[in-house]
Amino acid sequence: MTTRSSAPSPRQGRRTWRKPPFIANPWLRYGLWLAVAVYLVWALGTLPFNWARIAEGVPRAARIFGGGFPPSFARADLLFTGFKESLQIAILATLLGVMLSIPFAVMAARNLVPRPVYVVGRAVIIVSRSFHPVIVAILFVAAVGFGPLAGILTLTLYSIGFVGKLLAEEIEEIDWGQVEAMKAAGAGYFATLVYAVFPQILPRQVGLSMYQLDSNLRASAVVGIVGAGGIGGTLMNAFGRYDYDFAFAILLVIIAVILVSEGVSGWVRKQIW
Amino acid sequence: MLEITNLTKRYGNDAPVLEGLDLKVEGNSVVAIVGASGAGKSTLLRCINRLVEPTSGSIKLNGSELVTLKGAALRRARRKIGMVFQGFNLIDRLTVMENVLAGRLGYVNLYQAITRRYPRADIERAFTLLERVEIAHYANKRADALSGGERQRVGVVRALMQEPKILLADEPTASLDPRTSEQIMRLLQSLASELSLPVLINIHNVAQAKAYTERIVGLRHGKMTFDGTPDEFTKSALEAIYGGIEAPDDELTAPAAKPRKGARGVTHDDPL
Predict the structure, then answer these.
(1) What is the ipTM of this complex?
(2) Among A146, A232, B41, B159, which is least packed by CB within 10 angstroms?
(3) What part of B 42-71 touches A (C-beta under 8 Å)?
(4) A–B CB contacts, 8 A cutoff, strictly below
């Protein structure tokens, strides 16, 4: 040991170190940079940007924002009605979606159901996740007409997809020992679910529901634009009538509501864990 | 009476974990099953209540065959077989009382289970058993708020709520410190005679096996290599079970009545 801790060898001062490159192959490394550069030139060169129109649009944007100041709350009753409807849509859709997501999540959990049921459960979740709410809303508006019902159906489907998927993953990771204990006691399938599975996913379920309420509130403003009820429709009309000050007031209130709901849902999730 | 004949269990196409095993347990005897990791102890216990499907052979409890049972008949048979687990396997987020009453899930209907409206006799029995193991004052506490020894006592009470005809304990003390694990062993021993219940205990700790049971069964590579009283369990028997695998000599050198060494991997607190 003493020989190792002796005076430093003269070679030590010449040693250097550099971080090994993230991509070891230099051809691939520089080739990727080149590919990115070529793509940018190609995309910017071929996409139809109308530079004259963009230049024209800058003052137009300035006019819109200028027209928005100061935001006008003169038609507060209209604002209030729109928001009330949005909230109703969001809360109803969250309740429905979260409740329906539980059976679908169980069906989509590999460890709890036989293979054919699993395939059906996964399929439902994948289908409800494959389209953006706006596209689903367009379909539902076409099917059941303008109004809040289309919005509720859209966001319910959206909630089933999102909550169901994450809940199914949570179920697949539960502590299996508790399930075995219930089986060993002779409990039936549903009793085992209620005792050994649901308590384990409960905090996650509450957290997801709060997050989904938040998300549905946001989405309910968007689906309103395509006619599925709520504040989105009011916002669209305000823009259509060049009521920029009213539109701006709506935007401000949307931001405020989202901020409040995010704060509340974060607090609840922290409390329940 | 438990009667196992020619039991074989094979996972896939691997070598069998249990091979042609015969075992008979009568009356209220406490039987320790010892053996190295992978000897098939856990598989043996789990074959009895069919958490593991036996490949072939027969397991009879009080004369009725368990291996062929399916569905509701299997669930009815399972209620008569209590099981205590190494990791306790309590429902952490539920109260102690709910965990204990879960032992009755094979008897109550789904509505009673969901609303926790258990028959009065069940609740009475739960309190009596909780008092017997001195944790009745924790009835409304969440199960994960209890210490390891207390949690295992909840596990034992849950198994006893089933009014079992036999009790299986799969390494019930391996997650506990030495002193607590002795308490649990003593509890299992006295409950066996109080309720005249046969108890099968998988255990790593040979000293505890000798101190708290009246019969030791040694397994090695899925075959029985020893079956006899603790007095007959000599160094050569130990050698036959663990020989060439590991040598837990230190566990034998400790005085049998008060073993000082804990199970593998357990931190040693001051022995009392």
Answers:
(1) 0.84
(2) A146
(3) 49, 51
(4) 81
